[in-house]
Design brief:
By secondary structure, the protein is mainly alpha-helical. The protein contains 6 helices and 6 strands. The strands form 3 sheets. Strands 1-4 form a two-stranded parallel ribbon. A two-stranded antiparallel ribbon has the order 2-3. Strands 5-6 form a two-stranded antiparallel sheet. Strand 5 and strand 6 form a beta hairpin. The structure holds zinc ion.
């Protein structure tokens, strides 16, 4: 039997040793895509039906590398990231990306602690500890660092996205709307009356006059 090649290990980025694999985050690509979707989400809209899903996703995103969250005011009574906490990290990551694009430093505002310990003759690294906010932003920084060369702003809707292949817009919707806008800009408006008149003249002769249809307007004004 031929020897099976070992599956390749995919670290989250060059500086990370491991990341958990979960149904929501099976690989590094899923981190990047989740972050892009999170950054475009309209969080101030309180009736967002995807709110609990956003909350769980954000928690998993922040702790995907086994980090421990130190509780603070950003967590609600049930220990989940609050609405205001998610709004703040969304703002912080959006702002951070803008800073990097302006050739400025994007820095973590709160500390994350880390430690080493010896077990027998083996040295192990303990889990990182920090506030939800600092752990979330740190993970976002790692994702942005890994995906920087593929990070684009959609020319139609201005949202950020990770470019796949020759993709020029964030989504198919934006690509189609933009194509339609370009098409409308170069094309003369259709004259439906002339088109109808020409079609009828072909059938009934050149002297036919076609009256204009008058349409009743619903809800005028
Ligand atoms: Zn777009």
């Amino acid at each position: 039997m031929p020897e099976q090649p070992l599956p390749k290990q995919r670290p989250l980025s060059a500086t990370d040793e491991f990341a958990f694999s979960t149904p929501r985050f099976p690989d590094t690509e899923s981190h990047a895509q989740w972050l892009m979707a999170f950054l475009r989400r309209d969080l101030p809209a309180l009736d967002d039906p995807r709110w609990p899903e956003t909350q769980h996703g954000a928690w998993e995103f922040a702790t995907i590398r086994g980090a421990l969250v130190v509780p603070d005011d950003d967590l609600d009574g049930a220990g989940r990231p609050s609405h205001s906490a998610l709004t703040r990290v969304q703002e912080e990551v959006r702002h951070g990306i803008q800073q990097v694009r302006r050739n400025e430093w994007w820095e973590l505002s709160e500390p994350i602690t880390y430690g080493l310990a010896q077990i027998g003759r083996t040295l192990i690294g303990g889990p990182q500890r920090g506030s939800f906010r600092s752990l979330f932003v740190q993970t976002a920084m790692e994702v942005i660092k890994a995906e920087w060369s593929r990070l684009r702003t959609c020319p139609h809707c201005s949202h950020l996205f990770i470019k796949l292949g020759k993709q020029a817009y964030c989504a198919l919707d934006c690509a189609q709307t933009a194509r339609w806008d370009r098409f409308k800009a170069v094309r003369a408006p259709r004259d439906f009356h002339a088109e109808r008149q020409n079609a009828l003249r072909k059938r009934h002769g050149a002297h036919l006059h076609v009256g204009r249809k008058t349409r009743r307007v619903k809800n005028p004004g």
